[in-house]
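sorry for the late reply, my laptop died twice this morning and i had to redo everyting from scratch. anyway the thing you sent over, i finally got around to it. pasting the sequence first so we're on the same page, its 254 residues, then the predicted structure underneath. double check i copied it right bc i was rushing
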Amino acid sequence: MSRRRRIYEGKAKVLFEGPEPGTLIQYFKDDASAFNNQKKGTITGKGVLNNRISEYLMMRLEGMGIPTHFVRRLNMREQLVREVEIIPVEVVIRNVAAGSFAKRFGMAEGAALPRSICEYYYKSDELGDPLVTEEHITAFGWASPQDLDDMFNLALRINDYLSGLFLGAGIRLVDFKVEFGRLYTQDDMRIVLADEISPDNCRLWDTKTNEIMDKDRFRRDLGGVAEAYQEVARRLGILPESGPQEVPSAKMTA
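ok and here's the structure:
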């Protein structure tokens, strides 16, 4: 791990000062948590896998015109990112009823939704990341109406692209959570995708068997968590059959 000044440590990642102004080094840990940090554990190799998977997905999204904070992967566990002002709102896109959503509406897991549904949650472990409305977000100044419009539109574009990408790998994108930040330059400010996209914050099911391939395996004590993450990486074509190791950075393909 780079011996730089620690800026912030979360449940799954650590942020260190970057080599240049306006950059940070994002380090992926093997720590796992669920139920607002009530359940904790360690999944050996998870940080390496999430670093690779998130690198690949961020690069693909950048290629589709989605602005992100990602710059490049540095090594097995670290990537260089642009420093952004994180908006304290998690944006969740749901394509299929699952998890807390299914319980909240009394739906069977796996039930199709009439259309993709966007939800917002206030980022606060102390409060349990409560579900909030657009009115809460704008009234409390967490994001402006324009910020919110940008976040909503970007989240839908991310959903459209990733749904097709995962489907091509035999994976169903059930739902996912993303975070956004404000990237300031000398000329302007723009909203960009931040944090990560990985099996830690996506629900991914095998299209044929509905086998769970994400962090729900940890939440529900199903076992085989690292193996599921490895399978996602293999299907995306970014991990050799021998498992997580140091290999060249992901390359963009047409």
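Helices lie at 46-63, 99-104, 134-139, 145-167, 216-219, 225-235.
thats about all i looked at so far, will dig more tmrw
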